Amino acid sequence: MNSIIGKIAPNLKISDWIQGKPTNIDKERDNVILVEVFQVNCPGCFIYGIPESIRLYNRFGNSNFKVLGLATAFEDYDKNNLDNLRKLVENGEVIGETQRVLSQYGKIRDVNKLTYRIPFPVAIDDLQRLDTNLSENNVMDFVEANIENFRSYAEKERQRIIANVKQYLRTKIYAAKTFEEYELKGTPSSILIDKKGLVQDISFGSTNSLEYLIEQLLKG
User: Fold this and answer.
1) How far is CA 40 from CA 150, 169, 187, 211, 214, in A?
2) Where are the domains of the chain?
3) How far apart (Å, rounded) are the C-alpha atoms in residues 37 and 208?
4) How far is it, in rounded angstroms, from Cα 22 to Cα 208?
5) pLDDT at residue 70 greater than cutoff 90
6) What CA–CA distance (Å, rounded) separates 86 from 94?
7) What is the predicted pLDDT for the residue at 195?
8) Which backbone phi and psi does 74 adopt, to 5 degrees?
9) In which element (H, E) is residue 124 found?
């Protein structure tokens, strides 16, 4: 379980607002907030996560309910960047795997454009460039923080995990501050925050439970 659930939601670490009026968690008290976290080069984000958040935005938009889109990047940094996010928000343009997969599903128009627009505010995560010189301490800190019960694994398995982590960290150019602070596992991810600013749910991938949870939180 994510350790941040039930706690006061940290403010989103924002590098830039691309669409909508700048805001943050502490400015939206008395509102239920859904933060939809996605990557530009993430087909599932545009098949499941963002369409679902748009549906919920339209369903609850006239009540005390806010949706905020947050573009992040933990891979494919040449595609998951500010320039491509601007093209997405301003013109509906998609790139890379998103374009390829959406084309296969017939969910694209004019070669590289979404069939829908994102109606809610969108920002980009604060991406901090990392030192690529890996020390054993850095590797083990990452392992201990992300692999539950690591010490209980057999020695051969521990060494395999360490090798995989080293390979991953060599390609990890940036730290996405909000993504990491909320302990997210990937994209699309949805963060649901109640009117008091407490994190009530964090989900990864496709989910059908948000509508019921939002209804209950709006009654509170």
Assistant:
1) 32, 21, 10, 24, 26
2) 14-126+181-219, 131-171
3) 16
4) 29
5) yes
6) 10
7) 97
8) -125, 10
9) strand 122-125
Query: Residue 191, class by beta-carbon neighbours within 10 Å (0-12 exposed, 13-18 middle, 19+ buried)?
Result: buried
What confidence tens digit (pLDDT) does each residue in 145-202 have? 778 888 898 999 989 999 888 887 777 788 899 999 999 999 999 999 999 999 999 9
* pLDDT confidence bin for 132, thresholds 50/70/90: low
Q: Which CATH number fits domain 14-126+181-219: 3.40.50.150, 3.40.30.10, 2.30.42.10, 3.40.630.10?
A: 3.40.30.10
Which of 46, 37, 58, 123 shows the shortest CA–CA distance to 92? Answer: 46
* pTM score: 0.85
Confidence of residue 220 (pLDDT cuts 50, 70, 90): confident
Which tokens in the block code for residue 105? 């599903």
Distance separating alpha carbons of residues 75 and 173, to the nearest angstrom: 8
Residue corresponding to tokens 């925050």: 193
